[in-house]
Amino acid sequence: MGQIKIGDNPQTIDPNSILELEGTDRAFVLTRVTTVQMNDILPLRGAMVYNIDEKCVFQFDGTRWRSLCTENTDNQEISDFTFDPIKNELTITLEDGGTKTVSIDEFKIKAGGDGDILTTVGTDVTWIKHTGAVAESFLASIPQVIGKTFTDVKFGDNGVVDTSNFTTTNTTITIKTPGIYKITYRVSLEFKSGNNRSESEFQLTQNGNIIPGSTAFGKHRNSRNNKDTATATRVIEVSGSTPLSVEIAVQAKHSSGSAVLQTVVNATTFLIEKQ
User: Which of 100, 119, 209, 228 could join 218 via S-S bond, C-beta 3.0 to 4.6 A?
Assistant: First the structure.
């Protein structure tokens, strides 16, 4: 097989070379063409030219010319793919017939229980039981007499409480974390004694300050129709750094009439939900 050496040391050529260029003061110059001229050439796969419009070397891949400056990846379309459910592997077939098999065990998600929530724990994912960010109190016993001035309504310690977000007392629910909260109260009053038409008034407070838009009213006619229920809902935003201590209370007062009013057991509730 013939061999050709051009440049320095023409007598020295590697036995596996067909053509060698050697020199320290001259360069090898590829065929220089415009984009139009290059696209008119359909050579063997692997052929190279220098595109003077793009100022870059292009290589022919058997179908089209590819820039060696901007196309550093083998951009091929996926012609087919298969999934092995036993091995949990996805095999991708490229347009040139090449294949790539990828294990997707890392992305495999096992089913949780009914009502569970998928959440991240560090770099892992896991299912957790959802209890809901709520705090509820309701009056289960011992009615409270409502006086002529605003007083915190007593709800007792019955109900469901998410202790990561709330703490409760006999009369308050305290919010511990920032967020948007929906507050709902329902207070039923009845005559403890007397038979005169009476009226009542209710409001929410936040750390002792009245929450605007939270007022409700009740009207109690006589001993035959002496129960009335007031209800209101407000949405507030709580901000700041954890841990917080935002105390929410429901206040009530006997605003008019001479009858004695008291709360109704199992009809007086206080609920806060984190949205």
Answer: 228
